[in-house]
Amino acid sequence: MQRTMNPAKTRSALLTAALASVQILIVLLMLRVTLWLLGYLWSVVWPLVVALLLTTLTWPVARFLRRHRWPATLAAVAVTLGSLLLAVGAVILIAVPVASQSGDLTDGVVDGIQQVREWASGPPLNIGDDQITQAFDAAAARLQDSVGSIVTTTLVGVTTVVNGVITAVLAVFLMFFFLKDGPRFLPWLTRQLPGRLAVDVPIIATRSWDTLGAFVRSQAFVGLLDAICIGIGLWIVGVPLVLPLAALTFLTAFVPIVGALFAGFVAVLIALVSNGLGDAVIVLVIIVAVQQLEGNVFSPMIQSRGLGLHPAVVLLAVTLGGGLAGIVGSLLAVPVAALVGVFWGYLREQLSDPDADPGPGPELDPELVPEPETPGASENPA
């Protein structure tokens, strides 16, 4: 017996699908508008994001000082200055040994180029000096033809550097204010929001803060693990500048993909000009092995435990973020995915039982909560 479709059920299903489609389109449109606003305000948003990441990394020290009766301002100043001194020390740790051996490295680069030239002139390539000269001439001619684009690229690079300096300065100042007045934000926000939002928003903000802290700590741990493994490998091979290269590996770990490539390129180049081609190949193998373990094993496992994300989600988030926004997208992909997970988890909790008690709200450190304001006093945070 052939069964026919029920017209009423069919219309109901189509109507439900149409409504769901319209709702999804509205959500996607709002998401598009939000992303456009973020891009339009990126010069302000980016320093704010960097400051938040730095604050999550330095807040445990500031909290320790405040719990030991340091004034909030003094603790923020001490942590900010200490962070700057640590950053400057890391730069000096990398720059001074490199500068002291710059002469030997320069001679090694020249010798390496000469060795490559002699190797190219022999079998199986048999490239003569006249061919090499012609290649250099062709490269010089092409370089002259590309002067305009080179100048444009240089100007863009200078602008990028200037913007980076401005972002760093703004991020440091914002970090200071976050360390100083951060604990006053949630009580102030609770007083400003009406009704249910006064409970929901502070809870989501607290969970998001914990998630960002977990991300920064896990990233620092992964960078430290990379630095130790690669540093031990360089020390065994006998490559000079082991400590600066390990420090460079740790610092560049906070910039996904490009950071690892840059640190690896520097290590291989120094091994090539100081130890020769054989050791350079060994160093390359070590770096590739460590980076593969870090990218496919260590980082997904550590970040998934700290952020509550499956390793596959971490890998897909980094890939998607890099495809959408390059280096910045790769850097922010994992914390953004974790924050989305926090929001969705809380939303699912509320939707699963609408009559449930939302709870007392986020727990605040009693030592960091400001004194109650007197009636009539301003409600703006200091």
TrEMBL record:
Main localization, broad class: membrane
Organism: Kineosporia corallincola
Keywords, alphabetical: Cell membrane, Membrane, Transmembrane, Transmembrane helix, Transport
Annotated protein name in UniProt: AI-2E family transporter
Membrane topology: Multi-pass membrane protein
Pfam family, one: AI-2E_transport
Localization per Swiss-Prot or TrEMBL: Cell membrane
Keyword S-adenosyl-L-methionine on entry: no
InterPro entries: AI-2E-like
Spans traversing the lipid bilayer: 12-38, 44-62, 74-96, 155-179, 221-243, 249-273, 280-302, 314-347
Membership in a protein family: Belongs to the autoinducer-2 exporter (AI-2E) (TC 2.A.86) family.
Spans annotated as Disordered: 353-382
